[in-house]
Structures are given as C-alpha cells and as structure tokens.
Known about the structure:
By secondary structure, this protein is an all-alpha fold. The chain contains twelve helices and no strands. Helix 3 (80-104) packs across helix 8 (198-219). Mean pLDDT is 85; it is low at 3-16 and 314-321. Its main location: membrane. This is EamA family transporter.
Amino acid sequence: MSSASPLGAPSHRPDPADPSLARLLLAFAAVYLIWGSTYLAIRFAIETMPPFTMAGVRFLSAGALLYLWARSRGAPNPTRRQVRDGAVIGAFLLLGGNGAVVWAEQWVPSGLVALLVATVPLWMVLIDWGWGDGERPSIGVALGLVQGLVGVAWLTGGLQGEEFGPRAMVGGVVVLLGALSWAVGSIVARTAQAPAAPRMATATQMLAGGAMLLVVGGGAGEWSGFAPAQVSAASWLALAYLVVFGALVGYSAYIWLLGVTTAARVSTYAYVNPVVALVLGWALADEPLTPRTLGAAAVILSAVLILNRLGRRRRVPVGARPVRS
C-alpha cells in the first residue's frame, strides 16, 4: 500500500560490522518519516492527477529505476516464471492494495487511510487460520483480533458523519478490502519464485503492478480529457517524492537496516507510519484529528503490537516484505 506491508520482514542475519549510530538513526528516520509521509504525498499527487494513472506512473517509474539499479549491481534478469509470479504479487499488493489507497484518498483523510492500512496483520492472522496451516489462534491472538476489529469499527463509524462526507465511509471499506488484498499478496509471496536480488524482485512487482494500474485507469476513463498540462506543480513534486524518496531512499534504507539490525526492530515502522501520517495530515493538509481518531489509533496499533508479538511466538507471520514507494 503506500506502502507499503505492515509488520513482518525477511530474516536477515545482522552484519557483524558495527554501523555508526548516526547511520542507524538516519536509516530509521528514513523508514519512519518518509514511508509515513507517502500517504500525504499521495493526497497531494491526486489533487490534479487521476488516482490510478498517478499510481501506475509512480510504480512504473520506480520499478524502472530499481531495475536499472539492480542490473548495474550485476543482478540477472528475472526468469519467465519469476516475472509471472511477480505479476501475481503485484496484482494483489499494488493493484489491489495500493490501488484501493489512492482511490479512497479522494475522500478519506490520508492519516485515517494509513491507520486502516495498519490492519493488514489482522487479515494475515485470519487468513493463516482459515486457509494457511490451520492452526487455531490462541486466546491472546483472538483477543488481539477482536480489539483490532473494535478499533476499526470505531474509526469507520466516524466516517459516516458530516465531518468527512458520505463517500468517506465507502472509501474506508475499500481501504480495508485493499488491506485484505495486500495480506493475500503477502501470503502468495511466500511460495512465489522471486529473483535473489531484493531490488530486482521489487522492480518486477512494481513494473507489473504499475502496468496494471495504468490499464485500470484507462478502463475507468481517467485518460479521457486528461492532459499533463493540467497537473499542478504540487502534484508533480508529490509524484517525484513518491518515486525518489519513497522507493529509492526509503526502500534502500529498509534493505540496509535488515542487514545490520534485527527484523523485529525494523518492523517497528508499522507502528510509527500511521502516527506520522496522522500528524502530517493534520499539520499540512488541515485533516481533522479528533478524539475519536486518536482513540481508535491507540486501539488498532496496540492490537497490531499484540498480534506481532504473539504471532511471532507461534510462527504466525503477520506481514511480508513490503513493496513500498
């Protein structure tokens, strides 16, 4: 989704080299702040760009840059099977997951979208239980699921009010369905064939997902009457920010952190990103930050924390390597 995939991360053995504290802080700041800010950047980008077309251009551009980067580092081209599997993953993660986000942000504040995206771990646990290894959730996991669903109900219930408008409720439901699509794609990615080089694997998914988003945009009539000359400078800058900082800087910092610290520490971005998105939306875009929103955020994020800890003990993955931009 913008994003990203909330909690899990690949298992990488930390580098024995001791990185400097300054480099660690800069890398964590990139993952926390840049990825948290992509939701607001999406809002600015779609102010004068059609949502699916914007997302398609975004991921095609980011995918092309990552592909060239990977090839310059000696990564081989993906096989036909890897391209096919990457397209399937891109369909779930980018077309379904990110497509829902960009469409819904036409009516739902970016901070609330980020908070709804944080429900991916809830979907992961439910899918693992119903269609995965069949392991029944423990009482603690079940309570975490119930708490998360209560927080979602509390949050989406507020979208029906006059403060947000009637379409916001529909947009909130679409974001939840997008989070489900992201969870399904994350599970599919477990058994898919992917290039060994992480940047090449991500580039394959981005290129396929970006192409699908453009096709959907064309089918939805977004290209009719649209002209690049109509796009504002703010939207162009937001799109450039999503491609360069979200994809290249943020993703590179994420990959580097996986090599020098634990995946559990890196996964903390899942708790920080929604908070960053809420604060930025309030400060820079006049998005409402109500007591209801803050209360729902506390309920949802604490439920995600419970599921992450209990799920890790029970080997129930609650996320996958994100494809963020």
